């Protein structure tokens, strides 16, 4: 800037070469702090905010130049450099604020502040003339309007902080105009204000981004479901209610908060969902496009079926049936997860399929958990609201034997359990009496030697015709006497 400015304007040529040592010491301290923090941002922080990087680098360059040239620049050259630095850094501070609150620079009227800075730079050669007070007064109108309009966003995060920072510089300007301090002391005031503004802005904005990053990277499918449900209920409330202006503002803030929490990179959510769909590390096979399957010798398979479901589906609208099934399956899912290593496989219409312990070879525990699960499902079905307000009934079939487990399909991967064991379990369910559990002979042989912690009554049922399988001897589990099959209030 020397050939373009310093050699052409009297204010730079005739100024005394005076530079307070305290300013030099403060600049060294500021450079150290900002350098350490920038190193942390670049190499240790998981947040990659290039606006913060740019702000830090510009300020570090400004402070470094000041330290290097402290013996050859005068106080007005130093002041002018700071004015130029402001022109580049203050819009970055405002951008950080806007990004935090999903605003634009135009919305917060940043152009008034930027115009004020530009005019300040252009008019700086008149700094020591009689025109200077009028110039400052004019520029203060721009700044005052900018600060005044910021109050429109006082409900947004960090708005008052930004207002306090800008007000601090305005206060120092007033001190300067009325010459309360000399020009050197004013530079110290500006230096301290600069350090406070830049450092606290970066710390606050980076901390906010760190918190959002932590939440986004630790969110799971259930949390996303919660956020979606909240959003859905907010929209439903908006449509069904005459919303007041204050309530609209609150809703807008809630929408912004919720959208901030949803991860942009949803890869980990997709993998979590894939693991739920494809357990046993089969998601790796799917991702590798492998067609391998896993054989098992003794696996329990359970099927349930709603009694009179066909009649209900014919009588009531699809949305009514859907809500009923969703309620029932949500309840069933909550019960299944209480049992270690049981795995829900699929739901087709009113059919619900679960396989037993596919992680261990403990056959007795396999059968025990599956029968206890079936009893819990029979109990829980009474809590599901039927469209006709009649108590709902369930049929359950359980079999044990050889199966293979693998992934079928590519576009829509699906965990499948295949084998005659599955077919028999399904036929046992279709021929079971309402509110009973029909089990195969193999299941019975294991169950009769198992301690269930309650009285389980087995009733033999001979010559049961299972479609496409033949006549079989089966066993019916009658719920214990202390087990209430009536609707639970």
From TrEMBL:
<dbReference type="GO" id="GO:0008074">
    <property type="term" value="C:guanylate cyclase complex, soluble"/>
</dbReference>
<keyword id="KW-1133">Transmembrane helix</keyword>
<feature type="transmembrane region" description="Helical">
    <location>
        <begin position="50"/>
        <end position="68"/>
    </location>
</feature>
<keyword id="KW-0812">Transmembrane</keyword>
<feature type="domain" description="Guanylate cyclase">
    <location>
        <begin position="300"/>
        <end position="429"/>
    </location>
</feature>
<dbReference type="GO" id="GO:0019934">
    <property type="term" value="P:cGMP-mediated signaling"/>
</dbReference>
<dbReference type="GO" id="GO:0070482">
    <property type="term" value="P:response to oxygen levels"/>
</dbReference>
<protein>
    <recommendedName>
        <fullName>Guanylate cyclase domain-containing protein</fullName>
    </recommendedName>
</protein>
<keyword id="KW-0472">Membrane</keyword>
<dbReference type="InterPro" id="IPR001054">
    <property type="entry name" value="A/G_cyclase"/>
</dbReference>
<dbReference type="InterPro" id="IPR029787">
    <property type="entry name" value="Nucleotide_cyclase"/>
</dbReference>
<dbReference type="GO" id="GO:0004383">
    <property type="term" value="F:guanylate cyclase activity"/>
</dbReference>
<feature type="transmembrane region" description="Helical">
    <location>
        <begin position="133"/>
        <end position="151"/>
    </location>
</feature>
<dbReference type="Pfam" id="PF00211">
    <property type="entry name" value="Guanylate_cyc"/>
</dbReference>
<feature type="transmembrane region" description="Helical">
    <location>
        <begin position="17"/>
        <end position="43"/>
    </location>
</feature>
<feature type="transmembrane region" description="Helical">
    <location>
        <begin position="158"/>
        <end position="178"/>
    </location>
</feature>
């Amino acid at each position: 800037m020397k050939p373009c400015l310093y050699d052409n304007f009297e204010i730079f040529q005739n100024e005394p070469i005076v530079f307070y040592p305290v300013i030099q010491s403060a600049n060294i301290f500021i450079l150290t702090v900002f350098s350490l923090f920038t190193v942390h941002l670049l190499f240790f922080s998981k947040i990659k905010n290039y606006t913060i990087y740019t702000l830090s680098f510009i300020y570090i360059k400004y402070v470094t130049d000041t330290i290097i040239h402290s013996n050859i620049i005068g106080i007005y050259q130093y002041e002018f450099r700071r004015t130029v630095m402001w022109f580049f850094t203050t819009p970055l501070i405002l951008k950080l604020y806007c990004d935090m609150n999903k605003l634009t620079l135009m919305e917060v009227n940043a152009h008034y502040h930027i115009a004020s800075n530009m005019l300040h730079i252009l008019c700086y050669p008149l700094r020591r003339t009689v025109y200077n007070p009028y110039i400052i007064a004019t520029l203060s109108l721009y700044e005052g309007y900018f600060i005044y309009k910021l109050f429109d966003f006082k409900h947004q995060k960090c708005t008052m902080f930004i207002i306090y920072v800008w007000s601090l510089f305005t206060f120092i300007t007033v001190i300067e105009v009325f010459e309360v301090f000399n020009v050197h002391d004013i530079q110290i005031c500006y230096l301290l204000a600069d350090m406070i503004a830049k450092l606290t802005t970066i710390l606050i904005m980076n901390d906010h981004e760190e918190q959002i990053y932590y939440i986004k990277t630790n969110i799971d499918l259930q949390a996303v479901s919660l956020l979606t449900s909240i959003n859905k209920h907010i929209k439903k409330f908006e449509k069904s209610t005459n919303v007041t202006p204050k309530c609209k503002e609150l809703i807008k803030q809630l929408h912004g908060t919720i959208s901030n929490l949803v991860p942009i990179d949803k890869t980990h959510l997709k993998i979590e969902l894939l693991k739920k769909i494809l357990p046993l590390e089969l998601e790796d096979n799917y991702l590798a496009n492998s067609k391998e399957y896993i054989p098992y010798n003794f696996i329990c398979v359970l099927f349930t079926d709603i009694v009179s479901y066909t009649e209900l589906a014919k009588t009531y609208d699809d949305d009514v049936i859907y809500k009923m099934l969703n309620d029932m399956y949500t309840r069933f899912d909550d019960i299944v997860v209480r049992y270690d290593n049981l795995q829900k496989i699929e739901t087709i219409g009113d059919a619900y399929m679960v396989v037993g312990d596919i992680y261990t070879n403990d056959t007795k525990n396999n059968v025990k958990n599956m029968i206890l699960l079936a009893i819990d499902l029979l109990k829980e079905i009474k809590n599901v609201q039927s469209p006709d307000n009649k108590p709902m009934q369930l049929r359950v079939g359980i079999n044990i034997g050889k199966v293979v487990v693998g992934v079928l399909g590519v576009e829509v991967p699906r965990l499948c359990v295949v084998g005659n064991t599955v077919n028999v379990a399904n036929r046992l369910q279709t021929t079971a009496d309402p509110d009973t559990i029909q089990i195969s002979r193999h299941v019975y042989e294991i169950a009769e030697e198992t301690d269930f912690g309650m009285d389980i009554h087995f009733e033999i049922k001979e010559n049961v015709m299972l479609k496409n399988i033949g006549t079989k001897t089966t066993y019916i589990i009658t719920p214990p006497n202390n087990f209430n099959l009536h609707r639970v209030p």
